[in-house]
Amino acid sequence: MLKNKGSAKISKMMLSVIILNYKNVNLTSKCVSYVLNATKDADIKTQVIIVDNSAQETADKLKTLIPDAHIIENSENNGFSKANNQGILASEGEFILLLNNDAFINSKCLVTGIDYIKNNNNKCGVWAPKLVGEDGSFQVSCAKLPSIKGLVQEYILLNDNNSYPDLNKWKEPHNVGNVIGAFMLMEKKKIEEVGLLDEDYFFTVEDVDYCKRIHEAGYSVIYDPRCGIVHIGSASQEDKWINDPYMHKFRILYFRKNHGVFMAFLSKIIIYMGLNIRKCFFKYSKIRKKE
Question: Where is the signal peptide (predicted)?
Fold first, then answer.
């Protein structure tokens, strides 16, 4: 069970939406406006929780722009997992939605997700919709769980073997390895069973780790392409991914936690060998483009 210092009570709230803010009040405010419009259209009683990781004078601005939200102020950046856990512990809803502040939801996705979870014999642990960019471009937002074979394909052979072929052509819900943390809809009772997010992951890979735990508890992780939301955060460039220290560090941690020390050591060799290959490849590509 979750450990909460507050008194236990029966929840009358249907949905708690947890959004992290990090030095971007305007984007968070825009995200919340979409949440409020969507939940109003769907007639879903909703609690909005904003966890402010900015460690600066942004909480007052948030309170002014979003007066009805429950705002948790952190004196430092607590990272993704810990901050979301703070929101979960403060939540009152039957359903919990972990939502990035650069994701803009709609009522169709909320209704589709809640109905799917309710009508699938208590088997769905996490539900997520299709993600698209502001220009409508398709985003890869689910994958197979990490494996050594997948790392070799991705880092050494430069071929992402963890993704699903023809993902953008799927029309029906699929049970997948993991979805990304931009939108994760869950029942609170299942979070109480599986536990909170692992706070050893400061940023990135925590969503992958949590989906693995959901599977281990006997539940499915559903990617549902029947509806979609706009997500602007996946516009990152390849060279930015290469230089992201969190991604590689916490992938190695994932292997150590889930597969042991030897597999972690092997993953580290593959990752850093692959990074050097990729850096050389993209450096060469940029030189060729200039010629």
Answer: none
Average pLDDT, the chain: 89
pLDDT tens digit sequence for 168-222: 999 999 999 999 999 999 999 999 999 999 999 998 899 999 999 999 999 999 9
Quote the pLDDT of residue 91. Answer: 97
The pTM of this model reads 0.89
Length of the chain: 291
C-alpha dist (Å) from residue 128 to 7, 40, 47, 150:
31, 20, 19, 23
| Strand blocks (E) in the chain | 13-21, 46-52, 70-73, 93-99, 103-104, 124-132, 138-139, 142-143, 174-175, 178-179, 183-187, 220-231
Every domain of the chain and the residues it spans = 13-149+156-232
Hey, what CATH class is 13-149+156-232 in? alpha beta
